[in-house]
């Protein structure tokens, strides 16, 4: 049973590993371009393990920005993970402390999306499944970023190879996976517009936190799905 | 092995900051007994709200190559799988850049 879960995890994560390989390679190439050594970029992939914020980090390294500002920017880009770990709490309560440690360490965007999907489909969210899904993404991420660093000189301009469009297109795909949720369209539209405005007037990476805050606030303020079709047993819970 | 001490410290501080965000929400939520319905609605909106903000600047601030590419990817994504979205987005961008230019 647990072995089957592990294999199922590996299978699911494999697709993500393939999809994220270009970004790992791109990160490696850009890191070297911004003055990082191969060992430093591998250390970053292995310990930070967060695609978008690694990109933000090296961009700031290359521009000699103060250390605290780099860490603050990475914190801002990754702030969404606070929300992820809150949202998956219901699935990890039965994990041991050590399992929880690894669960949160491996909690990247697709991992989160897949865990929620699996939980909502009613399938068992076991640690061994989660670990299989995570490790098959983690190991290639570190190795391919090294490969990207080695090949960096040959990649040249990422735009000439059309690599720059893959990251937003990839995230767009994950967003679409949630389109059947209540309030999906208003939330996505408000987040999109708010983040575009924040990107323009406040700058990156704050557009992530500010745009998300707008969408989440809207979801909290919109009429609750339960309130639209009230069920008698729900009424005592209303405040 | 080439390590610059200051860069290593910044990387490790970034790793700690990232880990703090990855466990922070769990720590916060387990201190509460019951999740109020409005908070649950907010939590349910997290994936769409957050991930959209990563896509939006590429669309609004990107050139016409990026805009068209993301619209095509959106249409493809509504019909078929995520992998085909990447393929479609890449084909449109490369097609545009080879014919119209950057």
Automatic annotation (TrEMBL), chain A:
Membrane-spanning segments: 12-32, 67-92, 127-155, 161-178, 185-202
Pfam families in the record: AzlC (PF03591)
Domain of life, source organism: Bacteria
Gene Ontology biological-process annotations: L-valine transmembrane transport
Membrane topology (UniProt): Multi-pass membrane protein
InterPro entries from the UniProt entry: Brnchd-chn_aa_trnsp_permease
Any one cellular-component term (Gene Ontology): plasma membrane
Subcellular location: Cell membrane
Keyword terms: Cell membrane, Membrane, Transmembrane, Transmembrane helix, Transport
Organism: Rhizobium azibense
Protein name: Putative branched-subunit amino acid permease
Family statement: Belongs to the AzlC family.
From TrEMBL, chain B:
Annotated source species: Rhizobium azibense
Sorted UniProt keywords: Membrane, Transmembrane, Transmembrane helix
Protein name, UniProt field: Putative membrane protein
InterPro entries registered for this protein in UniProt: Brnchd-chn_aa_trnsp_AzlD
Ranges that cross the membrane: 6-29, 41-60, 72-93
Pfam families named in the record: AzlD
